[in-house]
Amino acid sequence: MGDMTLANSRVLAGASPEAKRAGTRLVVRRWLALLVPAGLLLAWFLATDVLRIFSPNQLPSPGQTLRTALDMIASGDLFRHIGASVGHVLLGFSIGAAIALIAGALVGLSRSVEAVVDPTLQALRNIPSLAWVPFLLLWLGIDEAPKITLIAIGAFFPVYLNLVSGIRQADRKLVEVGYVFGFRSFELVRRIVLPSASPYLLAGLRIGFGQAWLFLVAAELIASTRGLGFMLIDGQNSARPDIMLVSILTLALLGKLSNSALRAVEWWALHWADVFQGR
């Protein structure tokens, strides 16, 4: 371990001034990422434990929320709810994204398909998530199917819209070059259109995954006995705001982890792109 630290120190010592500045900025940005959460945690502590602006039945303190979370971890309840919700989100997102890829590709590549399909999809996109619940119960029953379907609906539209926009933003000159080189339709799409659309598609997947978590709570209102959405509603019904906070914070953490994972995939898939990364 000491040898590794010494080696790293030598590498940093031999680095160029530009590399040193870049490394310093990276460290500073990582610490800055903790600034807002730390400020919110401090404000929460002051409002509940010091100034007592909120009573415990309105807003539990950080300590009380942590104790509740530890109790649920010890009993296994929290992991049971997390496992159910993660399963719902992954399956619903996979189905919604897969359908969106097919629909987005067809609409983006064909004006005729767009004229037939897109107006209806744009109308359906504006229907609130809870409006689907009664019909999904009537059509699919009260088992897992309506939950998965509702999450798939939430994930579908961001992926679809971003993919269509990405295809339509492909450089027309590159497409014409492809025709000059004799690319057929499939080869043109694979080698020019889809690479041009990939930044839009990956952004849509990130937004769609976030939407899947948002639709999860509405989905788990449907006759659920487990899941973070159920835990949130159960905490409300039993007047346990500490359980509600544990559910909300867990959803936030899982959403952040999934977004970070997709950002890593996005960076890996688009490392070839010479684009502005911010300063």
Brief description of this entry?
With 279 residues, the protein is an all-alpha fold. The chain has helices spanning 2-13, 17-32, 35-50, 62-75, 77-109, 111-125, 129-140, 144-168, 172-180, 185-219, 228-237, 241-269.
Task: Provide a descriptive summary of the structure in words.
The chain is mainly alpha-helical and 279 residues long. The chain has twelve helices and no strands. Helix 7 (129-140) packs across helix 8 (144-168). The radius of gyration is 24 Å and the shape is flat. 28% of the residues are buried. The model is unreliable at 4-12 (pLDDT under 50).
Compressed to H and E, one letter per element, the order equals HHHHHHHHHHHH
CATH architectural designation of the largest domain: Orthogonal Bundle
Helix/strand-derived category reads mainly alpha
CATH class designation of the largest domain = Mainly Alpha
Q: Please provide the count of β strands.
A: 0
Strand content: under 5%
Features:
MetI-like fold, 2 domains, single chain, mainly alpha, 279 residues
